[in-house]
Amino acid sequence: MCGMAKNCKEMIMKRVIVVFFIVYGFAATAFSQPFTVASTMGKVEYLHSGVWKSLKTNEKLTGKETVRIADNSVLRVIDHKVNKVHALSSHPAAPLEKIIQNQTTGIIGKFVDELITALLNGTTKTPSKSNVSYKSTGSDRLIYAALRDTAYQPAYAVSMQLIDKETKEEIKDFGHIGQKFFFRITNNANEPLFINVLYVSSDNSYDACFPIDSALTMIQFLTPAHSTVDYSEYPMNFDKPAGLDNLILIASPQPFDLRNIIELFKNQEIIPADNSSKIGVYKISITVK
Q: Which of 11, 46, 244, 258 is the most buried (most CB within 10 A)?
């Protein structure tokens, strides 16, 4: 029995030592590379051995790397040291930590843990059904109520333009069936906002212009404060039927699921307006020919 007990103690000690080195190694890695690229839009690069390379989702960074963010582009990084997501707008070449200091606004992420899980599992690729829930549908209902309230005053100043994909010119008043375009979104608020666009066709059908990722993080649509971003990686085209279409930009300080809001519109649910709903709204009407 004594020999068995001694062997058990030795085995336990070995396991403790192994676990310690695994945890210590993970912590050391996290400390040395405290930033993870959550997503990018447009041209975002870092200097590697004298060569500029595109930053990719899930890349780990120390913060010392020289990074540059082109006009109308955005870099979103997770800061593991403070459990925050930084949405960074256009900036000339500088160390990442310096860019973050210059653009101090960020979001304290109650959903950062879920976001990290989503990134590690590769679930930000827009599948058909969500499988991670970190928010209630209550916020979606409040947004729906605000959109239905003709007296609602938006809490955030936002705007958008429709940009022809070929000519890069702004589309105003009229669009042509088959014409491709993308959204240029401007956030004039003092904080980053999650955005999506509700498309209401002339036949009263509803569509979400931007896809929803499975973790409902909406991280790829977090738009930095005081910035303009070209969402050219998500092009659309005008489709039949011809008529007057309405495109409604919705911007919120927290993620939302536009699919839920569309279902509420389809069912014409009656929800009293609530002043606690703080969103930005901007509408464009286009006659499609």
A: 258
Say if 183 falls within a structural domain: yes
Q: Is the alpha carbon torsion for 274, 252, 216, 99 positive or negative?
A: negative
**Digit-coded pLDDT (tens) for 20-71:** 444 444 444 445 679 999 999 999 999 999 999 999 999 999 999 999 999 9
**b/e per residue 130-152 (b: at least 16 CB within 10 A):** eebebbeeebbbbbbbbbbeeeb
Q: Based on the fold, state whether residues 95 and 149 are members of the same structural domain.
A: no
**Token pair listed for 57:** 């989702």
* 15 belongs to a structural domain: no
Q: Are 41 and 54 a contacting pair, CB within 8 Å? A: no
Whether 148 maps to a domain, the answer reads yes
Task: State whether 275 and 144 are in the same domain.
Answer: yes
> How many structural domains compose the chain?
2
* 156 and 273 assigned to the same domain: yes
CATH number of domain containing 264: 2.60.40.2550
Q: Minimal CA–CA distance to 264: which of 130, 152, 138, 126?
A: 138
Q: Does residue 278 form part of some domain?
A: yes
Given 88, 104, 120, which residue is the final one in a domain?
104
pLDDT tens sequence across 122-172: 554 433 333 334 455 578 999 999 999 988 999 999 999 999 999 999 999
| Residue 38 token pair | 């959550």
- Number of neighbouring beta carbons within 10 Å of residue 179: 20
Q: What residues are paired with 37 via a beta bridge?
A: 77
Q: Domain range holding 85?
A: 35-104
Q: Which residues contact 123 (CB under 8 A, 6 or more apart)?
A: 131, 132, 213, 214, 215
Write out 122-139 in H/E/C secondary structure.
Answer: CCCCCCCCCCCCCCCCHH
110-124 per-position pLDDT tens digit: 566 666 666 556 554
Q: Spell out the long-range contacts of 54-57 with Cβ–Cβ below 8 A and sequence spacing 24 or more.
A: 57/119, 57/124
